[in-house]
Give the backbone structure.
Amino acid sequence: MTASVNDSTLDHLRRIVQSAEPEDPRYRIVETLGQGGMGTVYLAEDVTLHRRVAMKVLRGVQDAEAVERMLREARVIARLEHPGIVPVHDAGRLPDGRVYYIMKLIQGRRLDEYAEASASLQERLRVFERVCETVAFAHAHGVIHRDLKPQNVMVGQFGEVLVLDWGVAKVAALTELRPPESAARGTPCDAPQTAHGTILGTPAYMPPEQARGEVDRVDERSDVYALGGILYFLLTGQSPQTWMGEPGLVPPRQLNRSSPRRLEAIGLKALSAEPQQRYASAAELATDVARFRSGQAVLAHREGVAERLARWAWWYRVPILIVAAYLLMRSLLILWQRR
């Protein structure tokens, strides 16, 4: 016997599934902020503390693997207490079983939108350095992001720089993320683990070893490759894979002639196909970018004498111009006196 369901019942069920109102009356949904591959983010109000927060809810009816991945993302973020990572305040379940977690509400623009605005190269590089510093902090705590891209970086209204979307992060010490009661029972709370051959991340910013599904080879230098892709975007406005071809990556200066040669070398070193040829860490990459910004020689580029003199002259251009102006005025004064 087949039971029929009328349209009003279907509409009611659809509203229940799509509703983000949690069972705990502490949070009141205000509006939808956006959607990702795994969940929907809502603007919510914390009724108890009278503050606005962001609530990420697992979208639709998901299997146990999606639930565990969502919970794991919340635990990873909660573990990484850093100004460049949005803090997690709470977690729970909706009446229909979907999990959610509560984050600090951040308002701003994604890095790709920020870069397309009137931001100067120096401003973009300062933001990039802070992204590198945040990623270096995560690496120091055994976490590899694996999905770094401009769309996963937020630049806040007051200069905050935040790295978002840690849903596919690789964690070196998973046992530290398990609740004590689950660890005692031997329950793999952070399972299922990424199997060999599983490809996670965004292809345009994915290093070759990650694209091939070589999970065991994915480490800090894999994130360095993605950071190089972000730098490539900041220089050219394009993702690296957009211009990928034989025999390799098109140098940024071929797409944007105004790209500084030393900065191009930094980006190409980070984007090396072989991990051993990249920067050893995100911190090392940030340090080389800082050298460029301060007018120093960078590790990624071997300068000639002419380049070194040109860099020196540009960095000290103000005192050089002052001295030149003084000598010119002095010469004119001597000529006038002789006349």
